[in-house]
Amino acid sequence: MIFRQFSTREGELSYLVADPVTRQAAFIDPSEALLADYEAIIRELGLEPAYLLETHLHEAHVSAAPGLREQWGARLVMHKDIELPCIDVRVKDDDPLYVGEERLKVLETPGHSRCSVSYQWRDRVFTGHSLLAGAAGPCRRSDADPAQLYESIHARLYALPDETLVFPGHVREGLRVSTIGQEKATNRELPGRATEAGFVAMKQQQAAEGGLWREDALGINRRCME
Fold this sequence. Notes:
CATH class: Alpha Beta
Number of helices: 5
Strand order of the largest sheet: 1-2-3-4-5-6
CATH topology: Metallo-beta-lactamase, Chain A
Shape: globular
Structural class: alpha/beta
Number of domains: 1
CATH superfamily: Ribonuclease Z/Hydroxyacylglutathione hydrolase-like
Helix content: 10-25%
């Protein structure tokens, strides 16, 4: 198994998953700031990029997916309801994705954004901004829904085995990885015992105090709009 975690200076996390036999590879939430790093490891390991998996349309960084798609011919994967002309594969809940002999599964986890998804692979899940290490994802986008996020985390993510590794889309308080069991027990915003009403009220208060984020809807990069 080939696996790498990458981080930008701002703490945005992205991932490489590759099949050691066929050398096919997938990048999850690639950031344009790390494009040179991705290209270096592709050449170093002799990889063949097959997929570029986005957990959502990003508001916090510009995606490297369009550049990797153009240079390496990898196929861009996003939720079926996102309207961008450059999407090659549109996915929904429980869809499988095969990277060589490796199998990933799509989990719809809306709430941080309307079309957020997570990707389950082997003993781990890539949660984007839906579930962070020690906190639930923020709900400060115009398409955020705290009630949906509560349901996504409880019904989809917390239903996974406790030993499942959680790889989020952003570093939080220095934490880059967790487990489902740890989140259910110690997540500051959404432990397993939290009620939906209390969680929704907390997220609504955070959004009111911090304000909605300005979204340019081009986090995937302008080349993707052409």
